[in-house]
Amino acid sequence: MKNENFRALGDQEIHSKIAELQESQLRNRFNKVLGNLEDTSVIKKNRRNIARLKTLLSERKA
Q: What would be the CATH architecture of the domain defined by 3-61?
């Protein structure tokens, strides 16, 4: 997702999106270890999206 799309979300939506991405990240890590994950780049993409959302939340608090 693009940063502009994240900025349109409310705080509650951002928190739920972070939780969703963290759950997805956990499943992807397990699948990678098991050898079931075909596209390993999703792990990096999820990690970066989580960081973007957390940064956006901290910017709003400041």
A: Orthogonal Bundle (1.10)
